[in-house]
UniProtKB/TrEMBL annotation:
Organism of this sequence: Spongiactinospora gelatinilytica
InterPro entries referenced in this protein's UniProt entry, alphabetically: Caa3_assmbl_CtaG-rel
Protein name: Cytochrome c oxidase assembly protein
Keywords from the UniProt entry: Cell membrane, Membrane, Transmembrane, Transmembrane helix
Domain of life: Bacteria
Length: 333
């Protein structure tokens, strides 16, 4: 709906409303970069506060979060080289796969819970993290459907073509790509404290199926463009190859996280088993002068001493060859 121009020019309210759609392509990237920088600064400040308090927090996690925030900012403001679809696919890999992996490995929820003192904000954060809705979303198959299903809807429907003409829809789609990527990565890795930890078998199987769905989508894009788009064939194939091989690399990194979790869990289980064996009391045979277990037929002499090997070989307990020791073939108690 258009309004007739004012006699002395458009007023501030009308002019702002008319100019807002034109300013969205500029405002939204600035807001996204500002949010990424602010989140990185808050994380680094919280990590520094934790260390000043005397608690340990690995510096590599600071690097993970800072690089993840930089990847998000680069995906918004730094268009990669190549054709339009190849550049779009590079942004998808940065914002939807690489940055989420780095951010999740930084364990921001764990940092927040350790920094916050017992107070209302900490209780609210725990309530949200352990809520039933968060438990359902952190179920790996659900997170995979939200992530991969969103990608299939973006590239196999006219949605991608519509985002080229609607800046707000374009921003919402990219926000979903980032949020779904973080959710899927967090559900697979489960590094932060959650209400329920799913098994490595379930998470590994989900990662395998999701990786197959991502690879199949890339292969379909190699042969057919998204509906309603007119990308060049060479650009389309280059973007599809970037999606295929780049996605494989990120999924291998996720598999490495799962393998490390399996390795550490197995090591802890072996350590617990070793401690249990070490804590068991010594057997009766080991408690008597360091002797190993002996058959029950070996009896003490009249003075209460165990027979020497020479006495046993000469026959009997008292050296007389007329009496042979009785052999007991029963197993140890």
């Amino acid at each position: 709906m258009t309004h007739p121009p004012h006699e002395h020019g458009p007023g501030p309210a009308g002019g702002g409303a008319d100019q807002l759609p034109a300013l969205l392509p500029v405002l939204l990237p600035v807001l996204a970069v500002g949010a990424a920088v602010a989140a990185a600064l808050v994380y680094l400040a919280a990590a520094g506060r934790l260390r000043r308090r005397g608690d340990a927090w690995p510096h590599r996690r600071d690097a993970y979060f800072a690089i993840g925030g930089a990847a998000l900012a680069a995906a918004v403001i730094a268009p990669p080289p190549g054709g339009a679809f190849t550049a779009h696919m590079a942004q998808h890999l940065l914002a939807g796969m690489i940055a989420p992996l780095l951010l999740v490995c930084a364990r921001p929820l764990t940092l927040a819970l350790r920094v916050l003192r017992p107070s209302r904000p900490r209780r609210v954060l725990l309530t949200v993290a352990h809520s039933r809705a968060a438990t359902v979303l952190m179920f790996a198959p659900v997170a995979a459907v939200l992530d991969m299903g969103g990608l299939w809807a973006l590239y196999r429907t006219p949605l991608l073509a519509a985002t080229h003409h609607q800046p707000l829809l374009h921003a919402l789609v990219h926000l979903h790509v980032v949020a779904a990527g973080v959710l899927f990565t967090a559900a697979i890795c489960q590094l932060d404290p959650v209400r329920r930890r799913w098994s490595l078998w379930l998470r590994g199987s989900t990662l395998l199926v999701a990786g197959a769905a991502h690879a199949i989508l890339a292969k379909t894009l190699y042969t057919a463009p998204p509906p309603g788009t007119g990308f060049a064939v060479a650009d389309l194939q280059a973007g599809a190859q970037l999606m295929y091989y780049g996605g494989d690399l990120v999924e291998l990194a996720l598999a490495a996280v799962l393998a490390y979790q399996w390795y550490t869990a197995t090591g802890r289980a072996h350590a617990r088993l070793h401690r249990r064996h070490a804590a068991r009391p010594a057997t009766a045979g080991q408690a008597i002068g360091g002797w190993p277990w002996r058959p029950r037929s070996v009896r003490r002499d009249t003075h209460g001493h165990l027979p020497t090997p020479a006495a046993q070989s000469s026959g009997g307990l008292h050296g007389s060859g007329s009496r042979q020791p009785v052999t007991d073939h029963r197993t140890a108690p």
